[in-house]
């Protein structure tokens, strides 16, 4: 009887070892995909035109930020739009550049140009809109000003601002 048990154990061990030899090595496959955001933002340039530092008045202009929704969302209770500093280290003030030369300016949430439009830090404000945005768009005005009295080198000055929509 012991002999039969040993044979049975040996046969089982052989089957297990044979079975292990038949198992293919495991492989990994990458799985990826892209989820498109249902909400997007676009903006028109705030073009200050020709700047005259001796005019005595701030050079003012405006542009538009448009938030669009391309697919129906059941509920979008609110969304917040923030603007980056651009190439400046702070919001006070932002700076356009022409080579190594800079020209101070800022962007505002209001026509009085009293509230700096930023990311909510350093005394800036964001813009929040409540309500549902379904398959449509909302346009908001961005107000800009270049303070007078900045005697800078002639040239074309520019900055790039990132618009962020949080919902």
UniProtKB/TrEMBL annotation:
- The positions making up the signal sequence are 1-29
Q: Which positions fall inside the Spore coat protein U/FanG domain?
A: 42-164
Instruction: Give the Pfam families listed for this entry.
Output: SCPU (PF05229)
The entry's keywords: Capsid protein, Signal, Virion
UniProt keyword Signal present: yes
InterPro entries attached to this UniProt entry:
Spore_coat_component (IPR053167), Spore_coat_U/FanG (IPR007893)
Could you identify this protein by its name? Spore coat protein U-like protein
Organism field: Oleiagrimonas soli
Q: What is the lineage of its organism?
A: Bacteria, Pseudomonadati, Pseudomonadota, Gammaproteobacteria, Lysobacterales
